[in-house]
Amino acid sequence: MKIEARGTGLTLLDVGYGVGELARRVRARCRLLAGIELDAEGARQAAGLFDRSMTGDLLESLETLDGESFDVAVAADVLEHLPDPGRALDLLRPLVKPEGILLVSLPNVANVTLRFSLLFGRFSYVPRGLLDASHLRFFTRRTGGALLEAHGFRVREVVPTAMPVELAIPALGRPPLAPIVRAAALFLARIWPTFFGYQFIFEAVPA
């Protein structure tokens, strides 16, 4: 994980932390762990993990951090839910130290499953996944990178994630098939990321 490579004593901002899954993994590495979460119940479950936790509107919470700086800022599965993701990046940009990094994950709207759905005239929202009903914006690898670069960041690396095939076909997520299926999905994502990648994780630095 990119965060682990940066050692300990970190200042980290987790934007949209959910129930604190990332916070639990990095807590021991951080001297200051701050987080923002819209969902009050998720924030309640994870509040004890953070040195500073803010609940409510993301943009308003980012504005309250003006003047602070972080070694790492994370916005995982966040920007696609915002009507103006560029504004969030504008607010995040001064919060990332010159030598710091921003980690962003975005779903890949050009994934093979959506391409085939469009061939048959389907673009149906669902409770979770690439067409999560709460998604307001959609990205490819190129447009996700362009968004970051248009708002003060330079993309240093893009890593695709594997499709969670087991969510569509649960039997493939159980032994003995599970490790084979996961390895195959990851292999496909790496050799043809724009087609088989499920999400893209962008590592960006202040430009």
CATH homologous group name: Vaccinia Virus protein VP39
Major sheet: arrangement of strands: 3-2-1-4-5-7-6
Q: Largest sheet, described in full?
A: 7 strands, mixed
**Could you tell me the number of beta strands?**
7
* Radius of gyration from CA coordinates: 17 Å
CATH topology: Rossmann fold
Averaged pLDDT: 93
How many domain regions?
Answer: 1
CATH architecture: 3-Layer(aba) Sandwich
The residue ranges in which pLDDT falls below 50 over 5 or more consecutive positions are none
Helix content: 25-40%
Q: How do the SSEs run, as a string of H and E?
A: EHEHEHEHEHHEHHHE
Per CATH, the class reads Alpha Beta
Tell me, briefly, the overall form. globular
Proportion of residues in extended strands: 25-35%
Question: Can you tell me about this structure?
Answer:
Helix content is 33%, strand content 26%. It has 207 residues and is of the alpha/beta class. It has one domain (4-206): 3-Layer(aba) Sandwich (Rossmann fold), CATH 3.40.50.150. The protein has a 7-stranded mixed beta sheet with strand order 3-2-1-4-5-7-6. Helix 4 (85-92) links the parallel strand 4 (70-76) and strand 5. The chain starts with 9 loop residues before the first strand and ends with a strand.
